[in-house]
Every structure is written in structure tokens, then in C-alpha cells.
Amino acid sequence: MSENNKAKLEEQLIRCVLDDKLSDDMKLKKMDYIIRLGASVNAKHKTGYSLYSLAKIMGNEKIINFLDEKGAVEEKKVDIIDPEYRKRRIEMGNFFKDSSIDEINMFLRILPEGFKLDCNIDLSNRELTELPDFSKVWLYGNFNCSNNRLVILKGAPKHVLDFYCSKNHLTTLEGISGVVNGKLVCSHNELVSLEGGPQHIAGEIYLDHNHLTSLKGLAYGLSKVDCSYNELETLEGAPTKVIGDFICSNNKLKTLEFAPKEVAGNFICSNNKLKTLEKGPQRVLRGNYDCSDNDLENLEGASEWVQGDFLCYNNPLKSTKGKPNIISGMFKDGDMNYDDEFETFVRFPKIER
After folding, report:
1. Which terminal Cβ of the chain has fewer Cβ within 10 Å, N or C?
2. CATH for the stretch 3-87
3. pLDDT digits (tens, 9 = 90+) for 196-207
4. With left for phi above 0 and alpha for psi between -120 and 50, is residue 178 left, alpha or beta?
């Protein structure tokens, strides 16, 4: 972006966003600010940046209020799956992807508090050591800052859909968005704590390949938790119920105390140091229960009900005492499968995992 274009952009944004009369008009109409890159519906704006607001959302339609050069409001109904609408959304995302950090910071500095952006922002693979300051922004799209050199997430937007911050040098989640309305992917970092993380996550969380020793600070209401490949010796902080998978394999767990009591997907606690399954989940509703590669001599404490397979490979089992009362799939302990219907052991070829 040339210096001349920067100046024009800044002048237009200041005029549109910060002009007192226009701001008052916007507030009176209870509109939210949104900015996009690309052609405006208004014929007077063939190119450049157009400012408009999101006034209503009904089904797949959004009522958009466009502003002309004089600040007049033009209301237009837009289908959010319309190709032209989606094109403008992509173009705004490309502004962040293609612009320099200085240009992005210039853009962000002149936005008012609570400004709403409706696009995806991709800042991955830019060798960033700090984020541009999006802290005033509510982002109605995904935010990706993976594959950088970040040690802190200060400057993240207040609100996002999916948040991707894998493959950095993060030791803490402090500074991250307070609300993540989708998934949080923070794999392959150096996290030692979850303190300071989002207050709300509506979807899945991926924390694998970090240095966590506990799950204190983990949000509730999650659809999936992957905390594998950490240094967990306890599951303290885990939610009491997970509506999808709970994966805590490849840690240092000796007990399942604090594990969710109900898991609606897969429960995977393989490759730990478990000597007992006591205090683990009582029901695994729609998935497998995998306790392979531990130090189990029996299965006491296992879930009463497993809708999928029950896997207990590579344990020094002396008996199957405590096995689930109901297994909808198969019981698998290596080269021997337990056929619950006939109460006998039936040999099968070893199942490779």
C-alpha cells in the first residue's frame, strides 16, 4: 500500500468513523460498525473501503446500512450466502493477510472501541513476536496466529469464532479472546498453565503437545478436549461432562480422579501410568474407551456402559474383573477378544492400531 493510499484510507476512516455527527447518527440508530474492503453497493463508491453497519440478523439475511459520501444511510437486505457478500468478506480477510504489520496497526488504531469485523483474519507464518492490537475488535470470523514466535497473546480480539495459535512459544493463555464461539487450537506450544484462558469456549479445545501439569482454568461446556502429550499427573480442572471426545493419553497419570463423569464421545487415557480405572467416567455414550498401555492388572472402576469398543491392549492384566457391564462394540486386549454374549474368551488375530 502506497503512502498516498494510506493517507486516503486514514482520512476516509477518520471521517466516517470518528465524525461526531455521523457517530451520533449511528448510535441513535443502534447500529454496529463494520468495515469491508471492496466495491460498495452504492454506485458512488466503485472501489476502496466502505463503512456500514449490521442492523438486524434474520435467518440467512442481514440488513446492511451503507453510508454514502455525505453520511446518508442506505438500507439494503443482503443474503449472507450470496456470492457477492461472501466475496467482500474474503476481500476484507485478504487485507489482513496481504498488508504489512505497520499497515494493520495503522488501520486498528483509528477504530472505535467495540468495532465489529466480519471476516477471517490470518496472521500465520509471519514470524510475529507480538500481535497487532485487536483488543478493541469483536471478530465475527476466525483468528489464526499459528506458526509464529509469540510468547503471549496480548492484543487478541475480544470475541472470535475459531482461534488458532498452534506452534508458537506460548507459556500462558493470558491476553487471549475472552469469548471463543468455536474451537481453540493451541497445540505444540510451551503452556504450563491454563490460567487466564477464555471464559467461554463453545466448541472444541486442543492443548496437545504442551507442558501442562493440570487442567485448572479449563472452560466448561466443551464439545471435545484433547490434552494428550503433556505432563499431566492429575486431571484436576477437567469438566464433569464432555459432549464429545476426552483425550488425555500420553501423560503421567496414575489416577483418573477428576476425569469427566460422562463422556459422549471417545474416552482415551492410553499411554499413562494408571494402575486403576477407579474414579473415571461412568458412561461413554457414543465412542470407544481406550485404556491401553498402562499398568492395569484388572479393570475395576471401568465405565459401566461403553457404546463403542473397550480397548485395553498392553496391560499386565491378571483378570477382566470390573469390565463394563454393557459394551456395544468389542472387548479388545490384544490377541484375545472377550465375547460378552457367551461369557468366554474367543481368540482373534491381534488387531493392529
Report:
1. C
2. 2.30.30
3. 999 889 899 999
4. alpha
